[in-house]
C-alpha cells in the first residue's frame, strides 16, 4: 500500500489525528522502531509500497499521537519554566528593549 494510503488509514483507524504521506516517510526512514524494513518495500513508478500488516498497525497504535514536544524536547520547557521571572510585567526577556 502507498504511504498516502497508510496515512489515510492511520487517521481513519484513530491512530493519529492527522497524518501526511511525508510524515509516514519521515517515520519510515528515521525511526529505528519502524517495523517494516526497507528490503520489504517495493518501488512502483514514483511510489513506495509498504506492506500493511499487524506489525505496522501495532506500531501506529502504540505511538503517542498527542500534539506537543516529546522526549528530550520537553526539557526545554521545564528549563523555561524556571526562568519565567524574566517574563514578569515590567521586565524584558533576555535584555530586549522592545
In terms of DSSP E residues, the strand content is 5-15%
| Largest sheet features | 2 strands, antiparallel
Sheet with the most strands: spatial strand order: 1-2
Query: How many discrete domains?
Result: 1
Span from first to last CA? 53 Å
Q: Gyration radius, to the nearest Å?
A: 20 Å
Give the number of DSSP strands: 2
Listing every helix as H and every strand as E from the N terminus to the C terminus, the arrangement reads HHEEHH
- Category by helix and strand content: mainly alpha
Mean pLDDT: 78
Share of helical residues: 25-40%
Low-confidence stretches: 72-82
Number of helices: 4
Write down the overall geometry.
globular
Task: Tell me about this structure.
With 98 residues, the chain is mainly α. The chain has one domain (3-90). The chain has four helices and two strands, in the order H-H-E-E-H-H. Strand 1 (42-44) and strand 2 (47-49) form a beta hairpin. Helix 1 packs across helix 2. The protein is globular and about 35 Å long. It starts with a helix and ends in a 16-residue tail after the last helix.
Amino acid at each position: 500500500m502507498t504511504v498516502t494510503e497508510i496515512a489515510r488509514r492511520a487517521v481513519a483507524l484513530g491512530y493519529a489525528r492527522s497524518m501526511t504521506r511525508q510524515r509516514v516517510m519521515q517515520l519510515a526512514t528515521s525511526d529505528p522502531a519502524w517495523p517494516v524494513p526497507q528490503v520489504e518495500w517495493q518501488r512502483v513508478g514514483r511510489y513506495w509500497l509498504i506492506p500493511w500488516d499487524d506489525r505496522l498497525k501495532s506500531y501506529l497504535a502504540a505511538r503517542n499521537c498527542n500534539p506537543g514536544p516529546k522526549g528530550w524536547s520537553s526539557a526545554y520547557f521545564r528549563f523555561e519554566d524556571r526562568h519565567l521571572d524574566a517574563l514578569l510585567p515590567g521586565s524584558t526577556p533576555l535584555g530586549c528593549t522592545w
